[in-house]
Known about the structure:
The chain has 838 residues and is an alpha+beta fold.
Amino acid sequence: MRNTSKMTTLENKFPLLAVEHGCIISKDADITVAFEVELPELYTVTGAEYEAIHGCWCKAIKVLPDYSVVHKQDWFIKERYKPELQKDDMSFLSRSFERHFNERPYLKHTCYLYLTKTTKERNRMQSNFSTLCRGHIIPKELDRETTTKFLEACEQFERIMNDSGLVRLRRLSTDEIVGTEGKTGLIERYFSLMPEGDTTLQDIELSAREMRIGDNRLCLHTLSDAEDLPGKVATDTRYEKLSTDRSDCPLSFASPVGLLLSCNHIYNQYVLIDNSEETLQKFEKSARNMQSLSRYSRSNSINREWIDQYLNEAHSYGLTSVRAHFNVMAWSDNAEELKHIRNDVGSQLASMECVPRHNTIDCPTLYWAAIPGNAADFPAEESFHTFIEQAVCLFTEETNYRSSLSPFGIKMVDRLTGKPLHLDISDLPMKRGITTNRNKFVLGPSGSGKSFFMNHLVRQYYEQGAHVVLVDTGNSYQGLCGIIRRKTGGADGVYFTYTEEKPISFNPFYTDDYIFDVEKKDSIKTLLLTLWKSEDDKVTKTESGELGSAVSAYIERIKADRSIVPSFNTFYEYMRDDYRKELVERDIKVEKSDFNIDNMLTTMRQYYRGGRYDFLLNSTENIDLLGKRFIVFEIDSIKENRELFPVVTIIIMEAFINKMRRLKGVRKQLIVEEAWKALSSANMAEYLRYMYKTVRKYYGEAIVVTQEVDDIISSPVVKESIINNSDCKILLDQRKYMNKFDQIQALLGLTEKEKGQILSINMANNPSRLYKEVWIGLGGTQSAVYATEVSAEEYLAYTTEETEKVEVYRLAEKLGGDIEAAIRQLAERRRNKETTNN
């Protein structure tokens, strides 16, 4: 019996003949080269950069021969986050983080570009001549010369785009297009509307009412008429949600139908290149006809004016006439959801000031033309005449945040979708030449989430093998330190608190090998100057030189006579008894006004044996920073003491540097919270410069954390010694300082782009998620805003809220001091409470 059903096999209608050498060849002898496109990250591009990208697209399109088709295809697919729980050595808090994001939905974006060479006849075909409508497809022959020229033009196209530095094209191989036994190819994925994973070819139903692929119903909105477009198009548009009256957040003009449209969809963008001269001649002829017929109809006269205007633009500015078409193809397997999607797509197009057209008639032929490599099958009646510059304005130009391709890093969160990202802000930027050091400067007002971010950062650095030393003035790291101490049985997680009964002490003259290099001698000299001079006193060259000479002479003395115990006591005695005598006996006298040794000895008397601070610099037990990987010095109790505070801070930093020299090939991290204020005097500038230089040399990083804007604005030392030596800058919510931000911008050397990003922090947070945003800038060239979102367990470990800390410690006490168990129980209670409330 003859088959009378309106059904055929995909093989009968399949428009492609072969894929050879990475080129897709259709049965009509059209040749297509396919690329994967890497676009810049969302919210990180300036208006000028959007214009530069636009200019590159236009330049690249102009190198293609006549009767070519540029088909840019952006896939936006809903996916769910798969947690990384397979590692055996994952900590309790890392597992909590991964579980918190389990199955978190997000929109994944992949962008492809197809460059097709077709013929004059094919470029003019209408939908009724689509391969979908023809009974038999007879393969045509390819012309060798035309093919060679086209492939050369494609190489030029690729080079132009890659040279921009903003967009990157990567040519797809035959296996990526067709697929292999183990992996599906691009064409197969298109037919199943699944970008990744196992694909199953499904029935395709085409009818006047709707189009289906398997269970998915398609909904298509088209921009195929110039009348549906806005009066003006631009390379970018202001994104109001993240803009302020002092800053702009630009996005590409077509961004509303890109990542901002949160449903499964494909955005197809076509630029069809005809012979521009021929097209313009046709318009000239049409204009003359309209002129002749204008007496019979006013519309003919108006049309002639429009055509004249188009021709004038083309000739005045040397523009290339092309045809263009744009469509949004969305789908769902749920009829009710599809209604909402249809409304969402329509409203997003309307936000671009376009007229949304829900196309049901040409849906099958437009779906067919969007098959990778089948752009030549595009129905001509669905396109409109324009110029390259205007057409490219409707390209989407941004993508999701990307994870760093590095084994080391921290977990942050995409601010738009809430998907976790792996971010390397230490090693990869240095390898790429973006930064020259690993130092960081952190600025965030009280309540901005600064402590949370820092806890999150140091925990992950510690878990990846780093040695962490923290100088704190607010018990911010107590919870995390307690968890580490319990986990390591006291080997790590050491918490030093400065008390009168048990003060922190150190011996600056102690080295186990009696080796004192120039930097070590300089650091001792700077410490002694700090003990001697007040903040307002200026250190003269003579004072610095004499003290440096005294330190060198004392070191030679203790090297020669090992019976002398290196300490501040023996140094003081050497200065009092020997060096003062040597000064008197010199041929060239040193005036008291140049170097007053008596004044120095009197001032330093309090640190000598029997003085009120004699414990500080004469320690017999040196603080062991070598074996301990996580140490917190809590010095809140002395932060108001103007004498002790700077000395204790510098002692801790010097102890860190001493040990840092001995730990070869291990990452070291020194975090100084508000204690940096102790180092902000002019006398400390030299020491800070020395410390930053040494830290970089020994695979370390210094992180200074502050919350007071006025402190950094008023201190030149901070700018010269701290900010200028920190290539990574981290800022949290600065909106309360919006009126002062110009000063901060000047001090930190921020660009207008970076200013716009910083002022957008926390402006459009998702109310269904609990998080704070943070801006990370690297070397002035790379920057973005990320979210610090953590699990309930991490929240309880990091919290600085007194009531929450008390709750954790009370429960831990009941559980025999097990903070981890207490946090588990409290986190579970919170989750159960939230579930009940919802």
